[in-house]
UniProtKB/TrEMBL annotation:
InterPro entries hit by this protein: RpiR-like_SIS, SIS_dom, SIS_dom_sf, SIS_GmhA/DiaA_subfam, UPF0309
Domain SIS: 36-216
Record-linked CDD domains: SIS_RpiR
Protein name, as recorded: UPF0309 protein E4U92_24280
Organism whose genome encodes this protein: Streptomyces galbus
GO biological process, alphabetically ordered: carbohydrate derivative metabolic process
SUPFAM superfamilies: SIS domain
Protein family according to the UniProt entry: Belongs to the UPF0309 family.
GO MF terms, alphabetically ordered: carbohydrate derivative binding
Amino acid sequence: MSDRRLGGQFFDAAIGLLQRVRDEEAEAVEAAGKLLADTVADGGRLFAFGAGHSSLAAQDVVYRAGGLALMNLLAVPGTVGVDVTPATLGSALERVDGLASAVLDTSPIGAGDALVIISLSGRNALPVEMALNARALGVRVIGVTSVAYATETKSRHSSGTFLKDHCDVVLDSKIAVGDAELTLDSVPAPFAPASTVVTTALLQAVMATAAGSLAERGVEPPLLRSGNVDGGHEWNGRIMDEYGARIFYRH
C-alpha cells in the first residue's frame, strides 16, 4: 500500500470525525460558546488548560489572530507539550495528586471566570483535580475529552471519576481509545492520531459561537487581528488596552 493511499485514509478518518462532532456535538458547542460569551459580558476572564499534546489545542486559542483576546493559557510547568527532558516526565506529572491545586492557588483565576480543560482521556489526576477544584472556586468549566475513555479505562484520580464528571459543558471529541486511526498488517501498532485535528476544530467552533453570541447581544467581541495585515498591530493595541486587566499573557 502506498504512502499516498495511507495519507488519504487518514484524511478520510479525520473528516469523518469532524463530521461526527459537527453533527453530534452541535448543542454542546452552542452551550460552550454561550458560556464563554456570558463570562466575557459579565466581566469574567477566560482560561484554557491542557497537558501533553492536549496543550496544543489550548495554545491554539490563546493570543490567536481571529480569536478572543481574553483567552489566557493556564500553564502547569513541565506539562505543556514536550518541553521537558525526559519527555516522559510530562506524562508522569499528569498523574501527580495536588499539582492542580497548587497551580490554581497561585493563578489569577477565580469566581466568575471560565476554564476550558482539554484532556483526551480525562482519566489522569491533573485534569480531574483541575476541574474539581476550579468549580469549587466558582469557575465554570468546559471539558474537551473523549467520553469513550470513561467506559473503556479506569480513572487514575483517587475519586474514581473522569474530567467529564466535573464540567458545566462537555465536548466529546469521539476519538477512540488509543488515539490512532490507521492499522496495517505490516505495522505492529496502530498509528496516525487525529485528536489534535478534532479537538482544535471543536474549540475553534466554540470560539466562533462565542463571538457570534456576543455580537447578538450588542457586545463587540474582543477579537485579535493578524499582525501581518495592515492595521493589525494598531487594532490589537486597542483591544489590549481596553481589556488589559483580563489579559495575563501580556504582563
